[in-house]
Amino acid sequence: MRFFSARGAQYHCRMTLDRFDRQILNLLQEDAVQTAERLAEQVALSPSAVQRRVRRLRESGVIVRDISVVDPKYVGRPTSFIVAVQVERERPELLAQFRAWLAAQTHIQQAFYVTGEADFILVITAPDTETYDALMARMVGENANVKRFTTNVALSLVKRGLTIPVPAEPAD
What we know:
This protein is of the alpha+beta class. The protein is about 35% helix and about 20% strand. It folds into 2 domains: about 1-60, Orthogonal Bundle (Arc Repressor Mutant, subunit A); about 70-155, 2-Layer Sandwich (Alpha-Beta Plaits), CATH 3.30.70.920.
């Protein structure tokens, strides 16, 4: 169920998931294009019941979106960079501006606001180091609040995923 605050920000109420919902979530995370019929066979429900549950999981915000995972080397983005960014000041308006800038950059796959020495950790994909250098030059040039950043170049991929393990029963 979706709710809106007085300022129009969207938020979701916490939804209770039963064992069927949990099974469906795990199955959809493995293959989001499975038919309701195929899912129904695996969770012992009717296809229409599965469709209703999937619709409810989407409408309530449990399922955020369905995506296809693309191998970066086939689309000309073979190099990955993991970047730690430090900012000068953590004033809310400066952080909001920087977050908006990060969200608008197509080369940035993931951006985390974190604790520790860095303030943000970025996962960036690019065709080459020149493209990465240009992005970082823009980041520093367009965000005066960036103090410094350090870069790690990924040598090989060990694991890639966004799957969230959903236990069969809720944790106490």
